[in-house]
Design brief:
heterodimer; A: alpha+beta; Glutaredoxin; 2 domains; four-stranded mixed sheet; 7 helices; 4 strands; disordered N terminus; B: alpha+beta; Ubiquitin-like (UB roll); Alpha-Beta Plaits; five-stranded mixed sheet; three-stranded antiparallel sheet; about 20% helix; about 15% strand; binds iron/sulfur cluster; binds FE2/S2 (inorganic) cluster
């Protein structure tokens, strides 16, 4: 989360501008009270699946609190994310059982493989990695949930295997796409 | 004015003052990291300023106790020292002390406390905490060194006091907690140009004004 710990300079792209317009509309529904900070952040994330810098700045202005206050609260809770989720969402369980069984090593493997930290998304938006608390199948620890599939007793070697699988899948999709196009 | 007895010596103090401030103003040092004069609600987060007060069973933090007529206080009992040494070692487990590179040099509060408590500057027997934080973070006007920061929160408090909308804040949680800097818009319009209070109040050299921004005097209210 290191890059959050700095000044925010906003050069919003068209995607973010659309988000911000919608956020402006949402904010009108909320009274300007400090107590609304968390409900507002939750509403924005529900709708847009993450909190962008521009949105947090608008929230700060709306509630007349410091921007840092908004970031301070938002970074405190695991439920908030600051990057759009990837097409493939990787959730590594670091609940008690998984932690004891080496879940942090699995997380590190994913992070190293993708070159991102937990809570981040690869620049091509293909993958995002996050840590989650107990997903409810401790007997299978350590556990990772890839999209909606539970991977139990996951080993570092399996991490590699998962990406090979994605690769194969992508190649198949590309092939099918190409075939469709040529038959049209 | 009230009179109280500290370590067998009578001192006079203004009413409404904390025991900690009164002792320090009378030349009696009590270890402290998070205390700021005149702060309304001391956070009492560093857990270094313990004293024993007659009539209270366990030691209490002197930054949160107001002086009263006739208080009898001891600052150096075994129970006090044990709490202080533990708190100090916990701080040092997250503060990597490198005197050679440290901008604070001679007048370091941590070194002063270590001497006072007669302990070393390493976390021993505790382990050094491996935190997943950067070596250096660019705060526009400052450089922030998370490895030196003891999270006393003085910088955040002073920034809020002076500017209302503070630019400094705590971010993240637990072992990952750090100080963060958020300004929006044009840095040329940030109050930091003429302020610098945070870097002046930081007791550890974790927040250092960049050389090119040195000209501000550093205001401490
Ligand atoms: S220089 Fe002043 S305004 Fe800027 S961050 Fe420090 S305390 Fe806040
Ligand atoms: S940067 Fe300095 S003043 Fe701020 S919390 Fe860290 S040690 Fe305390
Ligand atoms: S701790 Fe990971 S599934 Fe329960
Ligand atoms: S000065 Fe009293 S707890 Fe920090």
């Amino acid at each position: 989360m290191a890059e959050l710990v700095c000044m925010t300079v906003f050069e919003s792209d068209p995607e973010e501008r659309a988000v911000l317009e919608n956020v402006a509309a949402m904010l009108e529904e909320f009274e300007k009270q400090r107590g609304n900070l968390i409900p507002i952040l939750q509403a924005i994330q529900d709708k847009h699946s993450y909190l962008c810098g521009g949105a947090m700045e608008m929230v700060a202005n709306h509630l007349d609190v410091a921007l840092g206050e908004v970031y301070g609260v938002a970074t405190f809770y695991n439920q908030f994310r600051f990057h759009p989720p990837g097409r493939h969402q990787i959730k590594v369980c670091l609940g008690t059982a998984c932690h004891v069984a080496g879940g942090d090593i699995i997380l590190e493997n994913f992070e190293r493989k993708l070159g991102i930290k937990d809570g981040e998304t690869t620049p091509d938006r293909e993958y995002s990695v996050e840590r989650v608390a107990c997903v409810g199948c401790c007997a299978l620890a350590p556990v990772a949930v890839i999209n909606d599939t539970v991977e139990g007793h996951i080993k570092p070697s399996r991490v590699e295997g998962i990406f090979v699988q994605f690769q194969v899948e992508r190649e198949r999709e590309e092939r099918e796409e190409a075939e469709r196009e040529s038959s049209e | 004015m009230v009179k109280l007895i500290v370590d067998g010596k009578e001192i006079k103090a203004d009413e409404g003052r904390s025991v900690l401030q009164s002792c320090i103003e009378n030349g009696m040092f009590i270890p402290n990291m998070c205390f700021i004069k005149k702060r309304q609600h001391p956070p009492a987060s560093c857990r270094l300023c313990f004293v024993e007060i007659d009539g209270f069973d366990p030691p209490v933090t002197s930054c949160t106790e107001e002086v009263r007529e006739g208080l009898v206080i001891r600052t150096d009992t075994a129970a006090v020292r044990r709490l202080q040494r533990t708190a100090f070692k916990l701080l040092m487990s997250a503060h990597h002390c490198e005197p050679k590179h440290c901008p604070v040099k001679g007048n370091c509060q941590l070194i002063r406390i270590a001497k006072h408590l007669n302990v070393g500057l390493t976390p021993k027997p505790l382990e050094l905490l491996e935190r997943d934080v950067e070596e250096e973070v660019d705060f526009a006007f400052f450089t922030y060194y998370p490895f030196r920061c003891v999270l006393c929160g003085k910088c955040v408090y002073i920034c809020r006091q002076i500017n209302g909308h503070n630019l400094l804040t705590f971010a993240n949680r637990g072992f990952d907690t750090v100080i963060a800097f958020f300004g929006s818009g044009d840095p040329a319009r940030f109050p930091c140009h003429r302020c610098g209070a945070c870097a002046s109040i930081c007791p550890t050299g974790a927040l250092v004004r960049k050389p090119e921004c040195k000209r501000a005097s550093g205001v401490t209210p």
